[in-house]
């Protein structure tokens, strides 16, 4: 039986970071991945295919818009499989970074097979090999939650694991769930030409976002999608022609919708149920692995990262956690995970950027002593020139100007808001962003405009203006 300093179960965003990092530090590492190729959800069924599809759809949307605005005519049928080929090409390109042989060349022993704990130090791979890990990382990710809807299994449905294999554009698509997966994909399909209806349990969109931000994104999406809020799919039947008839309940109302495809995007569940964790002392909470800030589970030599944790189900968070585990599991450090400065972006059009506390959270946590700076994009020259004025930047600080949160809706916001992540993480005050020269006219100037308000408030409120006036009078 082979013995390792570190055994990593699951070769996705988190596991690959941990395995590569540990091997580069000289540790003997085994990586167990059930699929033929590592890469995980993000590469095969998540971030990469969804962003490739979003971009393809955006190009078509832009062409249609341009035709309308500039008076030319678009001709011919949409070649939807061409969009899917684009998606597959993006995956294949990035797969080279996550290739099993590339990891072998780094010194990692890569095993293909399903990893399962035999006990707290031994992991069985498939039905054969067993490896010993002095320390072990659980990074097995998550999978879609499939709600118990009558007729759903019999009628057939799509999830993020199958939607990127579609070869025909559905004329009518029903998306169940208005979270980031549902919204990003719903908007893309609408842009290809599907009629899309989104069915959501909750009364509105994106409950975790700042409530000033939500109306902008809702207004944008309602132009392209039909929403049914406070709605529940009651049952689904297959019609003679193969279409799907969906019965939706909304209050006392029963609504019938026919569709060619149904996409289920109702959340995720962690892949911890078949891991043999009952053979260990690793504790779960509703299926999620319970960890300390050091990412150690209730068995100190077993660590967990990525979507098996409840904390922050994003690729960049899994990568950050993977790096922390390298330090802790390989060098015995006690580094703690901290999500305070970790942003997320929802890649709808316009994009939604989220960092730190929302205004509502800041008021609960800090009280009234917070400051809120807002700029709408119709006040920012570059967005006016682009005719992309739907959106806003909002920054929340404490009374001294230290950044507590930042929230934006706007074209490309995921890229141009990154400046504030650096500022927040480095402990800069909002005023410092105002002092940085931004080339004119960039989109990032929107953030600077919000930051300028800090000085404006300082200069024109309180005692400062009185002192300034006295000084100027004296100087004259
Ligand atoms: C449609 C969609 C879009 C997304 N878009 C974004 C985005 O734009 N930005 C972003 O930050 N996040 C995005 N995410 C989330 C992101 O994909 C996940 O947060 C990220 O992949 C989690 O990484 P992970 O390492 O925990 O899991 P994964 O990357 O899923 O890796 C887990 C790996 O473990 C393997 N595995 C599971 N069980 C076993 C076992 N018992 N033995 C061996 N191997 C096993 C799996 O095959 C898989 O390779 C998206 C997700 C989806 C579904
Ligand atoms: N851009 C990104 O970073 C990105 C993109 C996609 C996904 N992700 C990650 O994937 C995770 C999961 O995304 P998601 O959208 O699947 O989940 P989610 O939990 O964020 O949203 C699911 C939505 O479905 C609704 N819902 C649940 N059951 C329902 C039902 N039976 N009928 C109608 N509505 C129902 C919920 O109220 C919720 O609004 C996200 O939390 C995120 O971390 C990230």
From TrEMBL:
Domain named FAD/NAD(P)-binding: residues: 4-322
Pyridine nucleotide-disulphide oxidoreductase dimerisation domain residues: 342-450
Keyword Disulfide bond on entry: yes
Listed cofactors: FAD
Domain of life where this protein originates: Bacteria
Keywords: Disulfide bond, FAD, Flavoprotein, NADP, Oxidoreductase, Redox-active center
Listed Pfam families: Pyr_redox_2, Pyr_redox_dim
PROSITE patterns tied to this protein: PYRIDINE_REDOX_1
Keyword Disulfide bond: yes
Family, as annotated: Belongs to the class-I pyridine nucleotide-disulfide oxidoreductase family.
Name of the protein in question: FAD-dependent oxidoreductase
Organism in which the protein naturally occurs: Paenibacillus gyeongsangnamensis
Lineage of the organism: Bacteria, Bacillati, Bacillota, Bacilli, Bacillales
